[in-house]
Amino acid sequence: MATLRTPEECAREILAIFVWHFGLLAGEVLRRNNFITLWQQRGYRPKDFNAGLQFALENRWLELLPGGNSYRLTKSGFAAA
Predict the structure, then answer these.
(1) What one-character DSSP code corresponds to residue 21?
(2) Which of 2, 7, 23, 32 has the most CB atoms lying inside 10 A of its own CB?
């Protein structure tokens, strides 16, 4: 049976992709498509990404950029990673 992850766990995995996989710093940007393959390889489902993204946005760890397909890592998001 699959492990259900909390939105916070999913958000922290998103931050880990920004910081530890891509080596990005606060203020840098990733497009949504940068996550798709990595997300599935790490055993997460698409709805896990959506829940984690919502958590990260609500906690101001990420900012949604115009167009809706890119996210900027904030200083607090970098610190939370």
Answers:
(1) I
(2) 7
Q: Say which residue the tokens 């049976």 belong to.
A: 1
Contact 69, 31 (CB under 8 A): yes
Could you give the CA distance from residue 36 to residue 74 in angstroms, rounded to a whole number?
Answer: 21
Q: Which residues of the chain have pLDDT under 50?
A: 1
3-state secondary structure (DSSP) of residue 20: helix
Sheet containing 70-73, strands listed edge to edge, beginning at the edge strand earlier in sequence: 29-31, 70-73, 62-64
Measure Cα distances from 31 to 2, 3, 14, 46, 72 in Å.
27, 27, 12, 15, 9
Q: Is 70 helix (H, G, I), strand (E, B) or coil?
A: strand
Q: Three-state SS string across 3-21, please?
A: CCCCHHHHHHHHHHHHHHH
